[in-house]
Amino acid sequence: METKDPMFELLSSLEQIVLTRDVMQAGAMTESEVAMPEPKRIREISGMQIDEFALAMGVSVSSVKSWEAQRTKPSGSAQKLMQLIHSNPYLGRQLLER
Q1: 29-38-42-74 Cα dihedral, nearest 10 degrees
Q2: Domain HTH cro/C1-type, which positions (predicted)?
Q3: Cα 33 from Cα 21, distance rounded (Å)
Q4: Which of 95, 3, 4 is nearest to 42 (CA)?
Q5: Any idea of the CA torsion for 37, 26, 17, 69, to the nearest 10 degrees?
Q6: pLDDT in tens, 32-89
Q7: What integer pLDDT is reported at residue 32 of this predicted model?
């Protein structure tokens, strides 16, 4: 099995985010058209349990539960990290290995 370089994967994911932002700024798409999936969906796609997802995100389990119940909204940096995990579901697991 081929192992991908985590730094390459991270940079690729960041590039996708920047391209999406540039398209939105050009007026081609609105923010709602490129809305990030819900935290629970991102967690499920990445195959992580709540405690693993919380550890990868650097937050408490209660924060993740609150996001998933839509009681609170993730911070900007948490949203960006979720975008990265969404574009590369293996990134969450790689973050747990560190």
Answers
A1: 100
A2: 40-76
A3: 12
A4: 95
A5: -20
A6: 445 667 899 999 989 999 999 999 999 999 999 999 999 999 999 999 999 999 988 8
A7: 45
Token pair of 84 as six digits? 């990265």
pLDDT at 39: 94
CB 82 within 8 A of CB 11: no
**φ, ψ of residue 85 in degrees (nearest 5):** -65, -35
Alpha-carbon distances of 13 from 73, 76, 86, rounded to whole Å: 22, 16, 9
Tokens of 27: 């007026």
Domain ranges of the chain: 6-97
86 token code pair? 């969404």
CATH class of 6-97: mainly alpha
Supply the DSSP symbol for 89.
Answer: T
